[in-house]
Amino acid sequence: MFTGIVETLGTIARIEKQGSNVDFWVNTTITNELKIDQSVAHNGVCLTVVAIDGDTYKVTAVAETLEKTNLGQWQGGRKVNIERSLRVGDRLDGHFVQGHVDATATCVEKQTLDGSWLFRFRFPKEFASLIIEKGSVCINGTSLTVFNVGKDEFTVTIIPYTYDHTNFHELEEGHLVNIEFDVLGKYLLRQQQLQSA
């Protein structure tokens, strides 16, 4: 379980293919604090640390993860948002995030405002019932509040701190991002579907 509050940026140091799996070696400032078998969110995708070598660590993405996320587009040198799992007793500054990406969305607008940045994203319409005005969404592992919600689009505003300390400063129109919708909304929708079935 995560909160969507990005802890640090990591850099993809190298990529190795193992059959249908892909191993990513990630360099971060917190590598020395990690341990093997620990869950870490990478752009909102929960992956397990399987090896540590100096200031880099290795995680493995299976075929399903590569198909449902933007990990298949990662290349060496790419910056990714990193968050370690929530500890019991920690503050929940964002919202409950599982690290299970629902879909990818496309950035269709990036606008520089006076002191902040506006981003508009287009997502698959079948997820429209999982997002509400002023609700929470996780974009590349970052917990954000949405507005101007439509059937297949929504908007977020990024403050300078978030812009500088996540990979939002590298995000441009046309880029694909990982989206996880609010888990509470998923449970409510499932309950409604079962009651009406």
From TrEMBL:
Keyword annotations for this protein, in alphabetical order, are: Repeat, Riboflavin biosynthesis, Transferase
Please give the catalytic activity noted in the UniProt record. 2 6,7-dimethyl-8-(1-D-ribityl)lumazine + H(+) = 5-amino-6-(D-ribitylamino)uracil + riboflavin
EC assignment? 2.5.1.9
Task: List the InterPro entries.
Answer: ATP_synth_asu-like_sf, Lumazine-bd, Lumazine-bd_dom, Riboflavin_synthase-like_b-brl
Q: Which GO terms describe its biological process?
A: riboflavin biosynthetic process
Q: Which Pfam families match?
A: Lum_binding (PF00677)
Which pathway is it part of? Cofactor biosynthesis; riboflavin biosynthesis; riboflavin from 2-hydroxy-3-oxobutyl phosphate and 5-amino-6-(D-ribitylamino)uracil: step 2/2
Q: Which GO terms describe its molecular function?
A: riboflavin synthase activity
> Which residue ranges contain the repeat Lumazine-binding?
1-95, 96-192
Coiled-coil region(s): none
Q: What does this protein do?
A: Catalyzes the dismutation of two molecules of 6,7-dimethyl-8-ribityllumazine, resulting in the formation of riboflavin and 5-amino-6-(D-ribitylamino)uracil.
Assembly, per entry = Homotrimer.
Indicate what this protein is called per its UniProt record.
Answer: Riboflavin synthase
- Species of origin: Taibaiella soli
